[in-house]
Amino acid sequence: MINWKALFAGISVVIVLGLLLQLAFTSVVVAQKELSRSYPEYTAMIDAIPYLVGFGGFFLVMALGGYVTATIALRRVVLNALIVGAVTSGFSLWLSIGSGDIKLRSLIFFALGMVFSVMGALLWRRRQE
Fold it and tell me: How far apart are alpha carbons 73 and 127 in whole angstroms?
């Protein structure tokens, strides 16, 4: 059975933390540009920083959303977390469609969003045992 309270909480957590991640990501990109100007010999390394923050942050946010969902749902946690991952990743995919075509990378992120949300729920289940 779907727990609506858990779904609402999980989706809310992902949205709020996702917006905070975007704020942090913007700050990292600004810092990256300044570092590239100051240290041009390290540009290749410096250019990787926003990707690490963006990818790692996205996966962490999705896992936390799944964990919160599982904490409230208590039963059928994988199903509830999967729904949270699909809704939030789907919303993100929908927003990216507005800026262009769907690319393979977008579909991979959609799938990984669901996977990490479920991983958060499985982590909760493992901690309960």
Answer: 15
What is the number of other CB atoms lying within 10 angstroms of the CB of residue 14?
29
The residue whose two tokens read 């913007």 is 26
Show the tokens assigned to 29: 């990109």
DSSP 82-94: HHHHHHHHHHHHH
Cα within 13 Å of Cα(30), Cβ side: 6
List pLDDT tens digits, range 82-108. 999 999 999 988 887 776 777 888 889
Report yes or no: 65 and 114 within 8 Å, Cβ to Cβ. Answer: no
- The encoded tokens of residue 118 equal 């479920």
- % of the chain beyond a pLDDT of 90: 63
Q: Which residue has the tokens 């904490």?
A: 71
pLDDT tens profile 56-74: 999 999 999 999 999 999 8
Residues contacting 29, CB < 8 A, separation 6+: 50
